[in-house]
Amino acid sequence: MSEIKGKPIATPPSTIFERVLFLLSIGLGLGAARKAPGTVGSLWGPLLALGLQYINGHPAMMLLYGIVLYVIGIPICAAGIRYYQTGDPKHVVFDEIAAFPFVFLFVPVTWGTAVAGFVLFRIFDISKLWPVNRFEKLPGPWGVMSDDTIAGILAGLVLTALWLLLGAF
C-alpha cells in the first residue's frame, strides 16, 4: 500500500463490476461529501424506505428488504474498504442507507416520520451506544454493515414507540 503524508492512496476499482460496487458503497456519490459524509449519504435512507413501502410496506417485507440489503451490503462495503484501504471508511455509506428498512419496519414514511427516523438513526449511529459499539468490532464489512443495522433497529424501536404514543406525525 502506498502512502502520502501518512494517508493511504486509494486503489482504483479495476473492473466494471468493482466500479459499480464502489459507486454503490459511496451512495451514488453522496458519501463523497467533504463534510459529514455519513449524514449526507444517509439522506438516501428515507427515500429508499419510501420506495420499498410503495412496493410492499408490510413489516415482513420490510424485514426481508433489510436482510437482503444487509447481505448485498457485505460485498458492496468490501469494495469501498478496498478502495479506501481502511477499516470503516467515512465515505462508505451503503451501510447507513441499508439500515433504513429497519427504521421504518412498523412505521410508514411520512414527512414527519422521515425526519424523526433520520435524526434517530443518526443519533444511534454517531453515538455508538451499546449494543451498536459491540457490532462495530466485527471484522471488515461485517462490522461496517452490522453496527448500522443495529442502529437502524434501535432507531426503529424508538420511532415505533413515538408513533404509538403520539399517533401519526
UniProtKB/TrEMBL annotation:
The keyword Transmembrane helix applies. Residues 25-162 form the YutG/PgpA domain. The chain crosses the membrane at residues 59-81, 102-124, 149-168. It is an enzyme of class 3 (hydrolase). The keyword Transmembrane applies. InterPro entries: PgpA, PgpA-like_sf, YutG/PgpA. GO terms for biological process: lipid metabolic process. Keywords: Hydrolase, Membrane, Transmembrane, Transmembrane helix. GO terms for molecular function: phosphatidylglycerophosphatase activity. CDD domains: PgpA (cd06971). Coiled coil: none annotated. It comes from the Bacteria. Its EC number is 3.1.3.27. Pfam families: PgpA. This is Phosphatidylglycerophosphatase A. It comes from Thalassoglobus polymorphus.
